[in-house]
Amino acid sequence: MNRLLLMTGSIACAKASGLISEWVKQGDQVKVVCTPGTLNFVGLATLEGLSGQTVMTQVYEAGAMMDHIHVSRWADQIVLCPATANAINKLAAGIADDAVSTVWVAAHSLGKPMVLVPAMNAMMWQYPATQAAVQKLQTWGVKMMPPVAGDLACGEQGEGRLPEVADIIQFMETLQ
Ligand SMILES: Cc1cc2nc3c(=O)[nH]c(=O)nc-3n(C[C@H](O)[C@H](O)[C@H](O)COP(=O)(O)O)c2cc1C
User: Fold this and answer.
1) For the chain, which terminal residue's Cβ has fewer other Cβ atoms within 10 angstroms, N or C?
2) Which one of 3.40.50.720, 3.40.1390.30, 3.40.50.1950, 2.60.40.10 gives the CATH number of domain 2-173?
């Protein structure tokens, strides 16, 4: 299976990187596309090292200008994990101003499974625009694995934690 992992700038990036090693271990190909913000939380060396593939971090890359189309066609499944409030709201508005949002907007009409796995502070999750954006994306056929309640990285408690890697993997299997 060709897995396209889109990542955005959340404290849960390190945890989400576990998806790459698990999928590679089970024989899948994994390509990672990430926002510049992601690289504040996990290094390019980790993402490239785990996936064994070049990581796409920007749209205008010499020699790879059409990769946003190529990776969309290459993928069997596309998952945005962790999905930030920023990214979710941009996608619902059709904004494509970085590699992740450009790939997402380009891929949507291909009809492949597209999954959001949000992770954020509970207040960001409850923000009306975030909730409305998630609902809008779901009406367009996007699948969402909701964040779980518990201890958040900011020291607070609430709904916003990234689900466990094993649970995300299992959820993705149900979409085949
Ligand atoms: C320490 C730290 C942790 C953050 N964690 C999250 C998070 O889990 N979820 C989220 O939506 N934003 C989080 N943010 C804020 C995002 O990084 C910020 O909104 C950024 O603009 C997201 O950009 P991107 O979506 O292009 O990656 C965090 C910021 C910092 C400084």
Assistant:
1) C
2) 3.40.50.1950
